C-alpha cells in the first residue's frame, strides 16, 4: 500500500511540475510579527501565463518560537 501511495504522489508531483512549467506562477510572501506575537502573512500569486489558472490552493507551513529577539 505504501508503494502505491508513493508512486501516486510521485506521479502527481511530476504532472504538477510539467503543468507548472507551461503556466508560470510567481509567488511572493510578506510577513509581519506584531509586538504581542501575532503573525500576519500576505501571500501574492501572480499568473504570468496566457491561461487562467483554476484550483490554486496555497499552503503555508512555518515554525516559530516565543523567544525574544534582540
Helix and strand layout, with pairings?
Elements: H1 2-22, E1 25-33, E2 39-47
Antiparallel strand pairs: 1-2
Provide structural commentary:
The structure is a single chain. This protein has 70 residues and is α+β, with helices and mostly antiparallel strands. Helix content is 30%, strand content 26%. It has 1 helix and 2 strands, in the order αββ. A two-stranded antiparallel sheet has the order 1-2. The termini are far apart.
Helix content: 25-40%
The residue ranges in which pLDDT falls below 50 over 5 or more consecutive positions are: none
Estimate what percentage of residues fall within beta strands: 25-35%
- Order of H and E elements: HEE
Number of strands: 2
Spatial order of the strands in the main sheet? Answer: 1-2
With helices defined by DSSP (H or I, 4 residues minimum), what is the helix count?
1
Distance between the termini: 49 Å
Major sheet characteristics: 2 strands, antiparallel
Helix/strand-derived class?
alpha+beta
What's the rounded overall pLDDT mean? 74
Global shape: flat
